[in-house]
Structure formats: C-alpha cells, structure tokens
Amino acid sequence: MSLTQKDFDQIEELLDEKLEEKLDEKLKNLPTKDEFFSKMDEVMGELKDIREEVTILSDKVSNHEDRIQNLENIHPGITAS
After folding, report:
1. What is the DSSP string of 31-74?
2. How many C-beta neighbours within 10 Å does residue 28 have?
3. What pLDDT is recorded for position 66?
4. What is the pLDDT of residues 13-67, one digit of tens each?
5. Residue 63 contacts residue 55 (beta carbons within 8 Å)
6. 71 — phi, psi (to 5°)?
7. N-to-C CA span, the chain
8. Measured in whole angstroms, how far is the alpha carbon of residue 9 from the centre of its chain?
9. From 59's CA, which of 23, 27, 43, 51 has a CA 20 to 30 Å away?
10. Which phi and psi angles does 32 have, rounded to 5°?
11. Is pLDDT of 81 > 80?
12. Which residues neighbour 31 within 8 Å (Cβ) at sequence distance 6 or greater?
C-alpha cells in the first residue's frame, strides 16, 4: 500500500504540531523582547556608573600619587614604615 497525498499532508501536520510543542517548551523560559531590553538598560546603566566611578577614582589616585611624590621630594630621608 502506498501513501497518498492526504497521508503526506497528515504526517506533515502531525510533525508541525510536535515541532511547535517542542519549540514552545524550549522558548517558554526565555524572556520576552521587552523584558530583555529592560534588563539590558539596567545593566548598561550600571556599567556606565562603574566606568564613571573608575574615572573619578583613578583621578583621585593620581592626585594622591602626585602629593606623595612631592612629600618624598621634600623629605627624602623619611620613609614610611
């Protein structure tokens, strides 16, 4: 007995349904587009804050290094313990 076009159509429909079920099952744990972009906005905001803080702190460290260097030049015989 050979398969008819109707049989092929039914097989295709069954496969489509099964694939859709599997795909839905795998995708249900992923965030929506809006959820993803909302979280990325939050993360990028934190990254921006961290970069600004690093810039500020590196400037302060540089300033402290300059002051220490000046003090060492004024009093070359004194060393920190």
Report:
1. PPHHHHHHHHHHHHHHHHHHHHHHHHHHHHHHHHHHHHHHHHHH
2. 7
3. 85
4. 999 999 999 999 999 889 999 999 999 999 999 999 999 999 888 888 888 888 8
5. no
6. -65, -40
7. 97
8. 44
9. 43
10. -75, 170
11. no
12. 39
Whole-number Å distance between alpha carbons of 62 and 44? 27
Whether 40 contacts 32, CB under 8 Å: no
Q: What angle do CA 33, 35, 38 make, to 5 degrees?
A: 105
- CA–CA dist 75, 73 (Å, integer): 6
> What's the CA gap between 32 and 42, in Å, rounded?
15
Is residue 39 a contact partner of residue 31, using CB atoms and an 8 Å limit? Answer: yes
| Amino acid, res. 8 | F
State the Cα–Cα distance between residues 54 and 50, nearest whole angstrom.
6
Per-residue b/e over 32-70, b at no fewer than 16 CB within 10 Å?
A: eeeeeeeeeeeeeeeeeeeeeeeeeeeeeeeeeeeeeee
